[in-house]
Amino acid sequence: MTQPINPYVFPIKGDLSRADAVVLSHEAQHAHGSVFEFGLGGSTIFIAGSTSLPFITFEHDEGWTARTRTNLALYQEHLLTEPQIETISYRDQDSLKRKVEGLIQRYKPSLVFIDGEDWGQIGVARPTAFNLVFPLLGVGSRILIHDFRRDLEHNLFSPIFAQHMNSIKAIMPNYRQSNMCLVIKGPEMRHVNWNETEAMDNRVDPASDNLGRVPPSSYFTRVLSKAKSVGVHQGFALGATTGGYLLQQNPHELASLVTFLKHARPRGLGTYVEIGTASGGTLRFLHEELPSERLLSIDDGEHPHAKYRGENLRGIPEGKLSVFYGDSHGEKAREALRDWTLGEAVIDVAFIGDHSKAGLIQDFYLVLPYLKPDALVILHDTAAVSAVAEALTQLLEERLVYVIANFIAPKDTPPAFGITVCGVPA
Length: 426
What we know:
By secondary structure, the protein is α/β, with parallel strands linked by helices. It folds into 2 domains: 168 residues, Vaccinia Virus protein VP39 (Rossmann fold, 3-Layer(aba) Sandwich); 230 residues, 3-Layer(aba) Sandwich (Rossmann fold). The protein is 34% helix and 19% strand. Strands 3-2-1-4-5-7-6 form a 7-stranded mixed sheet, sandwiched between helices. The protein has a 7-stranded mixed sheet with strand order 10-9-8-11-12-14-13. Helix 7 crosses helix 8 and helix 12 crosses helix 13. The longest helix is centred in the first third of the chain and has 15 residues.
């Protein structure tokens, strides 16, 4: 009986790297449905040599198809399945759509590999393939996009990902140190423009039922009203200007964030860490709207309003809140976080408030080992402080995070500080 090829030693054809081959072979071996491929080549051999499931591959270049058939014949003894090669044309969109839709309905793929040189059709083939297959795939299906480190791929797929964001569970660039981006299909959520949540009435259910449905506009309106009234930092001239929570947030941005989290984390924030608590107003506000199981505040106590922190946090039940007083960049902070997490990845949400590039990146690395796979990392002042924006850019360039949502206040409610919610690739 033919065994799956060993991607660590099997000869590589085409422009696959060894890491690419390992990822592709692993994903094909663990697919639970058929496998589709757009763009013949060395990848075709690795897929056909890694799975016995139905394998449909699409190619628009006849010369490339002929070369691949020759290579498949050379390695026939290593193949577990016979690829079904479908000739397509990206110029005939109607015919292409009918063919792909029909084959998806018949074979129900769980893994799709998108590759292939566009030659004279740069910017057409790969986005077309993604847009064709993604809406038709089942929840949990996986798409691998090759050559994702190229600037062209970033520019092409960023708007496409945004278009499908409400059905994407995860986007993982440089998946397992390869030159591929993994996209996982998730359950479809209702579209919500979180910066225009006042206009949500006609698009969502009339009430939230704590089962993951989008909260109605009345929820945003209430949270916005609360954010305006509970008290913000005097220098911001937003809402109430004295007393209360002494929030250092734009009320619109904070209300949008809370509404988003109400949807993303309908049962609360789980295990929550905040670095840079200052007055404690944001921590208090979030906990009141989205109760947490455990909270950890890390702060050096040097903010002018740190003296109000005790008052802001006294409403959190005893036993839920732990506080570390000191520099988050020191060894004692690392020891405190390690002890608090028991060295396990238990953090659901981390809020990082440092406003220096180096400090923010250090804080990110502080929490990184303890983040759950689906954890959220929230950064503040991404639109107002250049050092914060630079830190975010570096984290993105190093593929340490990906952006899930940005909240920037409307032009009629300045100033805009910017709150960015990030995910962390597996």
